[in-house]
Each structure stands twice: as C-alpha cells, then as structure tokens.
Amino acid sequence: MLNEDPRPDDLPDAPTGYAALPPDYSPPVATGRVQTVRPGLRPALAVVAVVAVVAVVALAVWRISSPPPAAQTPGPVGSSVTASGPASPTPTAGSPSPGSTAAQGYPAALAPFYTQKLSWAPCPDNARHRCTTMQVPVDYAKPAGDSFTLALRKAPATDPAKRLGSLVINPGGPGGSGVEYAQYASFVFSPAVRAAYDVVGFDPRGIGASSPVRCLSNSDMDLLFSADPTPDTAAERSTLLADVDGVTKRCAARGGVRAMHMSTTEVARDMDVMRVLLGDRKLNFFGGSYGTFLGAIYADTFPEKVGRMVLDSALSPNQTELQEMTYDIQGFESSIDAFIGWCVARSDCALGSDKSRARQKIVDLLDAVEKKGLKTSKPGLTTIGEGWVGFSIFMCLYSDTSWPTLNQGLAQAFSGKGDILLAKGMSVVERGITGDYAPSTYLQAMIPVRCADWPRATTAPSLAAEQKKAQAAHPLWARMTGELYDNCRTWPTPGRTPKGTTLAQGAGPILVIGNERDPATPIGGTKQLAKDLASGVLLTSDHDGHGTYYAGNSCVDSAVDGYLLRGTAPADGTTC
C-alpha cells in the first residue's frame, strides 16, 4: 500500500538532494509502486524552460533520493527472441591496442583519444568503486583543439566469475550525473545485474564533474521560474519572451565555444570512445528518460557497436512538435487523473470528494496564483507565482510516492501559502534557501543541450491552430505548460534535424520500456521510439509514474534482467 505520509525531502527545510543520502542507506521494503523523472523536450515552455526545459530531471533524481525497493521475485514474461550475443569477458581496466577489434573503426585523427590510458583509482567515498577521467575533443571536426575532461565512476561486478562486461548508464536530464547514478548502483539495478556487469556512470561533457559549463547565474535560473508562464496580454507575452531570450543569450555568451558542443550526438561519440577504453567490443547501455534519447542517437550513429541496450521511459529523436504535444497531453491527463482518483478517495483530500470538480479546482488555484501569488517563509522568495507552483505540482506527479506531498501542498496553497510546493520544487532543482543553486543542478545543461538537440520551432499557422485547440480542450494542461514558444531562437547555432526515418539499421534487439501512465515521458513517445528503432522491442508496464525498471514490478525486472544477463528479449509488445 502507498505510504500516505509526505516524503521528508519534499517538506520545507528538509534535507534536499540525493547527494545527502548516507552510504549505508538500505532500500525500503516495497510498499507499492514507486517510480521516477523526464527529459527536456520541445516546445520549450514558459518558465518551464521549467516544464519542458525543467521537467527533465533525471531518473537519478528520484531514484537516488528515494532508492527503489529490492527486486521482487521474477515472474514469467512470455515468449522471447534472442538478442545479440553476450559481450566477451574483458578486463575491468586498461585500454585495447589500436589494432585490436574493439579499437577499429575510428578516424586516425581520433587515435589519441581512443588509445588513451585510463588510470582507475579507489573513489574517495567508496574504496570498492573506481574513479577516473578521460579526454574527448570539444569539437570532433577539430580533434587537435581543446578537449573536455569526463569524470567516470565504476561499480565493479560483484561476481567476477560471472562478469559479462561493462554497463554504461545515463540517468537522464539532460544534466543528470551518471557518476552519482553509479554511486548508488545497488539501488538502481538488481543483484543479478550487479554481479555480472561493471556499472559505469559518467558525467557528460559540460556537466557536473566533467569540465562543467556553467552558463546560468542564480538570478537567471530564478527568472525562469518567476516569469509569468501564461501571459494574458501582448505586453505580458513580450516581457516573457524578452526575459527568456535574454537568459538564452547570456548562457551562450558565458558558455562560449564549449556550450556550442554539448549536443547529444557529441555525447554519443564520447560514449564510443569510452566503450573502447573500457575494453568492450560492443556498448552495453542502460538509459533512463533523456538517457533513452542518448541511447537512440548512439545506436543510430554506431549500430554495429550496439550490445545490450535498455531504454527506460523513452522519447524518440524523430518526434515532431505535434506528436510531442499529443503525447504530453496524454501523459499529463492520465497522471493527473490517477492522482485525483487517489486523492478524492481520502477523507483529507485538498480537492474534495467530487472527482469531476477536482481538476477545475487546480485550474482555479493556478489562476488565483497568477494574480496574487502564494506567500512563503523562504528568504528571497517570500511570494511565488505560477512558475514555481506549476513546476512543483508537475514534479509531484513523477512518482506516486509524492502524491501525499502534493495533497498537503495543495491544501496549503488553497490557504494562500506555498512553502510545501516551493520546498518540492527547490529540492528538484537544488536551490538552497540562500538563493544559490548547486553547481550540479541539471538546469545548467538545459539550454545548451536542448538548443543543440532539436530544430527551431516552426511558426506554421496549422501548428499554432492545433496548439490553441489543444489548450482550449485541456485547460489544466495549458496552465501547467504555459506559453508555447521557442526558447532557443537567440541561440547562435542551429539545432539537430531529425532523420524522420528508421533508426539504428543493423543493430541487435534494443529493449524499450515504459509505464502506461508516465507524466514525464508519456507512453506514446516510448511506443514511437520502439517503432522508430529498426530492432526496437517494446515492453510496457501498467503502472503510474516515471521510471519502469527496478521500481516494484517483478515482471518488468525479470524481463530486463533476462535480456541483460542472457541476451533474451521479451516478445515485442509484452505488457506487465
């Protein structure tokens, strides 16, 4: 049964951020379904550079701050197909020689990167784990120029006799720390997977401990949340766009050349260098949320190098603006309905007992907040508006473990106070009560990565008409989403152009998984990615929240483990 108490880190002045999790923390006993968080998508939304630039939090943000329960007894998963063969056992350190099988296939100009030596050493906080750094070119077209230093962390296979190779992981974001994700590998992967794989996390270029690019100031990030996301007049819309355009320009200026080279395509190329340095013939990869985008780009760029790849809570690099809007509406509507259904069954539901009126009460609350704001006890944020409130409500939908927090936050908001909702939002983006954002906040990566990964928004009248029609039909979604516009229009370089064709031709089976009711990466996008991949295998879970594997569904866990350990994928279209 779902724990009905608010999560401690969602409440005012409680410990925030997953870095504070004690090393000896033990996973809780399973009390129901628990899940996880979303990638930054287009169109960028008002403050939501905040719900599309911010609703991006990595899988790790939830999983590490509230580790998933221990895996349950695996259940049957039906018929299967065989994936590509297992990776050959390889050393846990050292580099293959330039003439080895693993090192073939790169340009001669990149040899200094593909043949560098990794010097693994015990990690400062855990001597059983190994940490190191590696170098990659800032610009692959000019490899002799400047380079990024990438931070890596390895949780070695717990049973060397069963070791299959390395499992490179990405928790999402963009901006999530793979190093911190690997730090808590035992909470994220089953004991069987931990026994067989060296779990290797890395901070992508420009992020965290990897030559960070910090292009946003505290005031810039506060501005993204304080701007009015639902302008009612031409003047208000002009102010909103000017504010966001200003933030984008300042990010480009501060970030410089490095900020222009933080695309997912370049991170995928970094992972191929990493694959060779780890000694793996093929890349075994687990990506969550935005990490699925990274995995798909890698698979499309290096299809012959794909080993066993799991993409959890996915989106397709081929998604169009209209598809994304459709998926977002479906994901949000199913998630808010699930929360409302849970809430109105309680005697203390802030929305009352009438399910048909509950949604309108949230609409009315957001309209009132736009006019008057909510009072808080936070220094420097004594009043908050729609930006913080909408973002915090949305983030509480990422996992049903935060539904009690959302219920109490809404109850407090109806009385004119916003401490609980603000505490939730601040914990997600790592904003301290002094107004300082942690250097590790994924917000720093939002603009450089998002502006590189997606084409500029179109201004087609037909799309604008569809957007207005959708906003009128879904008023709560419209308020949560805010104004639809392109927050990258002042970014100095163009975005990626989606292929719009089948991805990863020639790759072995790629397992794509997702929850039916996911507010962050809606199931429509997960299904599209499985279809867009030439060898995609779809596995869905009839659950709520964001994050599917090792989140309380033994059927999913059994299927994923069977694939990672034995190369056996479930039948395409299996539902758990």
UniProtKB/TrEMBL annotation:
Residues 77-102 have a biased composition (Low complexity). Keywords: Hydrolase, Membrane, Signal, Transmembrane, Transmembrane helix. Residues 1-27, 67-102 are annotated as: Disordered. Residues 476-576 form the Peptidase S33 tripeptidyl aminopeptidase-like C-terminal domain. One of its GO terms (molecular function) is hydrolase activity. InterPro entries: AB_hydrolase_fold, Pept_S33_TAP-like_C, Serine_prot/Carboxylest_S33. Residues 1-10 have a biased composition (Basic and acidic residues). The keyword DNA-binding does not apply. It comes from the Bacteria. The chain crosses the membrane at residues 43-62. Belongs to the peptidase S33 family. This is Alpha/beta hydrolase. It comes from Terrabacter carboxydivorans. The lineage of its organism: Bacteria, Bacillati, Actinomycetota, Actinomycetes, Micrococcales.
